[in-house]
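#dry-run=false #mode=assembly
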Amino acid sequence: MEKIKIAFDLDGVIIDKPPLIPKKLLEKLFRGKSHNGLHYCFPHSKIEQKIRKLSHFYLFRPPIKRNIQFISQLAKDSKFELYVISARYSFLRLETENWLKKRKTKSLFKEIFINLSDEQPHLFKEKKLREIKADIFVDDDGLLADYLAEKLKIKIYCFNKNVDCLKAKNIDNLNDLVG
Ligand SMILES: [Mg+2]
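#status=ok
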């Protein structure tokens, strides 16, 4: 039997935001301006990259425990094959590996993809989802989730209480993914 392939975004789904920085400010820093709203800044200067690297140090990024618990249950079920598809840029590779190691979550996934060629996040995720032939994807970015739901014929879920998606399906509990 074909396994059901479920892919998860990292930040906002598995990894929480740093507790002291308002989400609005993070969004402002990380998303550029454009007419359709889907454009993400790549921090080109060394100092910006340093700040981002620091803000991704694992102790500043708490795990989203209930989601990890749920994913751990799924990982035990041979019906499912689990992936991470994160658009974190190449300069965050070590921080990401370190987080997954420290939080003992690496073994839950068949493969973990991050955005090593620094592509636009929505394009990177679209490409990877096609490549692995995912059945389900969960992201916390409403605009991005809607973009993917428009482009791909798979189930796209948005795990974020503060946005209403038009195309993707909003959920606030990962249990709603299956069953
Ligand atoms: Mg995210």
